[in-house]
Amino acid sequence: MTSLLETHLLSAIIFLPLFTALGLLAFRIVATSVFRSAGVPGWVWRAIALTSGAANFVLAAVVLWRGFDPMEIGYQWVERASWIPEFGIHYFVGVDGISLVLVLLTTFIAPIALLASWKEVEHPLRSYSVLLLFLETGVIGALLSLNWIQLYFFWELTLISSFFLMGRFGGSTGLQTATRYLLFGLASSMLLLVASLVVFQLNFDQSGLANFDLVTLGDLPGLALLETEIPLHGTDVWWKTQQVLFAAFVFAFAIKIPLLPFHSWYNAAQKDASTAGSVIVAASVLKLGIYVFLRVALPLFPTAASEAVEWLSGLAVFGLIAAGLLCVAQTDVKRFLGCLSLAHMGFIVLGIFTLQHHAVVGAVIHMLSHGLTIAALFIMFGFLIERRETHVLDEYGGLAKPMPIAAGLFAVVLLAQASVPGTSGFVGSFLVMLGTLPMGLGWFALALVGLVLVAGTLWFVVGRVLLGPLEKPENRGLIDFGWRERIVVLLLIVPMLWIGVYPNPILRRVEPPVSLLLFEVEQARQGDTSALAEANLARADRWP
Amino acid sequence: MGLPLAAVIVQAVALFFARKPVRRVWVVGLTLVPLVLAFVFVVSAFVELIELDRDARVIRDAVWSWIGVGVGDAVFDAELIFRFDSLSAVFGILFIAVALAVFASGLAIMELDARADAGYQRFFVFLGLAFSSSLVFIFADNLLLLLAGWIGGGVGTAWLVGFWYSEEGSRRAATRSIVTSLVIDAALVLAVVVLFWSLASTGPHALDFGAIRESLPSLGRAQITLPFGAEVQTMALVAAAVALAAIGRAAQFPFTIAAAGIARAPAPAAAMGLINASMGVVLCCRLSFLIDASPMTGTVLAWVGGVSAIAGAAIALAQRDLIAILVAAAISQFAIAFIAVGSGAYSAAVFQIGMTLIVFTLLVLCAGSVIHTLDGERDIRRMGGLNVRLILTHLMALIGVFSPGFFLSREQALAAPFESGGMPGAGLLYAMGLIGTGLVSWAISRFLIDVFWGSIRTPLGFRGEFNDPPLSFMLPLYGLAFVSILGAAMNPAQIWGDLLQGGVEGSDSLTQFLALEFTEVAGAGIEASVRWQLVFASLLVTLVGFSTTYLFFVRFPRARTRLNRRLAPVQNVLAGRRAAERVDRAVGRPLGALSRFWLDLSVGAILEKVRRRIGVQGANLGRTFLTGLRRAERGLPDVSLLFALLGAMALLAAVLP
Lengths: 544, 657
Known about the structure:
The complex is a heterodimer.
Chain A: H1 2-7, H2 9-34, H3 42-67, E1 76-84, E2 89-95, H4 97-116, H5 125-144, H6 148-169, H7 174-207, H8 241-256, H9 264-272, H10 275-300, H11 302-307, H12 309-329, H13 333-353, H14 357-388, H15 404-417, H16 424-436, H17 441-465, H18 473-476, H19 483-501, H20 504-526, H21 529-540
Antiparallel strand pairs in A: 1-2
Helix pairs in contact in A: 2-3, 2-5, 3-4, 3-5, 4-5, 4-10, 4-14, 4-19, 4-20, 5-6, 5-10, 6-7, 6-10, 7-8, 7-9, 8-10, 9-13, 10-13, 10-14, 10-20, 12-13, 12-17, 13-14, 13-16, 13-17, 14-15, 14-16, 14-19, 14-20, 15-17, 15-19, 16-19, 20-21
Chain B: H1 2-17, H2 24-51, E1 58-69, E2 76-85, H3 86-112, H4 120-139, H5 143-161, H6 168-200, H7 209-219, E3 223-225, E4 231-233, H8 234-249, H9 258-264, H10 267-286, H11 288-293, H12 295-318, H13 322-342, H14 346-373, H15 391-401, H16 404-414, H17 416-420, H18 426-452, H19 471-486, H20 492-500, H21 510-514, H22 528-554, H23 557-566, H24 569-572, H25 579-601, H26 603-633, H27 637-655
Antiparallel strand pairs in B: 1-2, 3-4
Helix pairs in contact in B: 1-2, 1-4, 2-3, 3-4, 3-10, 3-14, 3-19, 4-5, 4-10, 5-6, 5-9, 5-10, 6-8, 6-9, 8-10, 8-12, 9-13, 10-13, 10-14, 12-13, 12-18, 12-25, 13-14, 13-16, 13-18, 14-15, 14-16, 14-19, 15-18, 15-19, 18-22, 20-22
């Protein structure tokens, strides 16, 4: 059992939620059709889903984290099996420092989201739990995939499960919002798919083999997708091959991430989603877009990426500052949190497009931090909405009086969101800022203005919700957070503080893959493929 | 250093898990015991430090590696490492001693405050957070840790300012405080990051202060490109950012509005706010090598100090809130420390900051005693005559106002522009400082007279038995009063050395003790005759400040007669019915206008005025802007969807034969 787990650990982490969901569905079918039973109570479904999520986190945090060698460059715990070999489609998974951090985040957030929405969704609990488990599998699968088609499959799984979560549990306009979300998701996926098919074709032309693997496998012939030499200038139709394909990727990811002004699906979706849906989408699904962009688009199109650095940084900074301003104007709690996420996404993307070591490492840490803090904010505001049944910010005010514990928890989370030292937010944002300066003082100043704006906005909302006189009579009798609610938020606060005070274990794991990635991008940009081959060989040493 | 922080964490956890409020005795224990222990440890470390060789007076304590990223010359490795050198020793002892007094009196006064029932423990969590951050700042050994303590101090102060969160005014004051903090924190982040990359360009280096100080000459006249192509010297930019952060934190011009926030807090919190405001000067002292590397920044700091000395004092004179008067006066005195910093006389600045903190903490806590007695009344026009009952508080206030150490520190800081030799406009700078000093003397004697002397003007009478607060509150005041007298002996050597032209060879004065940390400007020094003149001028101005208010009171014989019956002979002649109102009329109005002038010049007040002036049109404009933002939040749904589909189709069309 132990050796099976050791060889198939990643598969276990990916499929445990999916198998739990399928098991629950099968059990329901058997119970209702064979035994004519009404089935088991909803809370049992939820408890099983919660246990599965918790077990998955234990697998990721204990076995994967402890077994991961931070000194080793490249992918670890690699598994590979043929799926449709004639088209180069394989089941191919592996983990490096970047995906490790995001897998940990997802496995941590999923059970917490379920626990947080314990009372929010009363009926039907079964499909709610099942869809959340599907979503978890989709996100983790995409993070660990090393084959493009497999990655795409998991990517779409997140889209479909999110669609049903929003449509079914998203209030009166849920279905409309979900349809919009699906349309946007499909459109960007379509663009991505077509662009990657072009890359596949180029790869086929160069190697003569059909191959969708993202990275080369040591003892097999073939050229991985990420090693495809995509010409800068083509003939006839492809007058600028790399730039056009890169633009297609950028556009698709700008919708997925989302970046302003391609974000319209996001806030509408957040407004209508249930708490657990909001949490997983904001904490994990958004990061997936950035992760895949970092992992796939940068190494594939290094020259185009380098050429577009200023444009994309401009878009990111615009997103950061504009979203900060949008936050000020919001009257709806969930839309406010959506705008806050947009601002942070802009900041993270800026960090990545500096193509500078400190900033990219900072962007990864900021993804982790933002995942924790935004999850905590969605959950806490979800608790408030459960009590007051309104999303309108002005309906709150002076809540620190009747809810002092809640106010204290809000304060700590907002400090982390505002990047105060000693919290996870500081580590990520400081490193991004550190890496932004080499781009120029102007970029640095704009990013700093954006951060200050976001921090100021946070205080503005604290003032509106928690401080000031208790004017609304409905707020006077509000009951403070109960034990379940306190523990849920506390579970999120502990890693925020831990990362803030002692981030080095994470930094040690994130740095090597970032160094390798930037090295590869730089070498490929300069046309030095021998260095690229060396790097790949170094990575391939451990693989079967 | 970890003790107060650990106590804060324990209290916060207790606050979170306890079903009922924690017993007061536990709060008292958790608040005071760690501080007392911290004080004992810091004193023992101080003894250890002075036993070391003069050139090796640094004790470093590494905890763990905090943030380590990068390769080659661009390694950014910030350790969690603390430094105990002569500068941190002085400020460590000073801050912990003052904080001990603030916490101890805070425990007593919050116990007595009816509003504090629900927030008793929370108050000490906030206070502890602010103080722990300032300790991190003082003992930091590298730039990042210094930044962490700096930002933490700002956040802690903002929380204290907003302690009475359910009051609209407190909420606004806290918001103002946090906005100011954000701006100045951003300036310090800029300084840290620019400095890191500038040093990285010269080769591998560490982030601790010693290493930076050594590497600094290698930067030479390196330049950095600003947006739009302009170039500026790197060191000038870094020093300017540090200076901006420092004057912002110390509520100097044009950030004087930040002082108003501190003044809204409860008395112990206001005292803690002063400690955090003094961090602005401490920052300049800690990073003195950066200020020295950019002489222009030093000059600007000195002139900001000169302007702020007058601005702060004028604002103090126009205030009616008891705490606000003292806070604004303290800000004016911090400004005098900036004059010294700008002139390169860092040890004089340290002396000035130390004495200002001790004296004004004492006065603010005296004010707390008064406010408690008057059941929360803070308006100075509704006080008076308290000396007959608050005898000990009155005595403490007298000691604070007439502290000899305070006079000496101020004198030394004011003389700094002359000592440096090369400061342009030293005479004018000195005059500005002197005017500020005179006005502050006026303001604090008005505090003394309006609160303690004259007739009783409170409409509602007094709370309870109307006596001095209990010993638990007064004890810290005694301690502070004692130190404010003893402080006179802290750094007299230089002054007397100058006066006697005998120098201070072999003397272990503050200047000598701090000599290793600073590169004091080797100016021409001052001749004995000039020094005598400066001392005389300073004394004269201080006395004029005090005696002017005195003269107003001796003109009222009726009140004098009344007081003669009750009070000691010296005090009898000072009192008078409606004296405060007359002072206000005769002096307060013109000074009020001056104060408003300064307030209007500051950034926050200008914005506030613009907002008011714009009126309805502004409101409409604001609404339109917000509506536009809300619409923009919906994004470009159709366009982005359309582009994605068109892109996919275009790619397909290109690929397909």
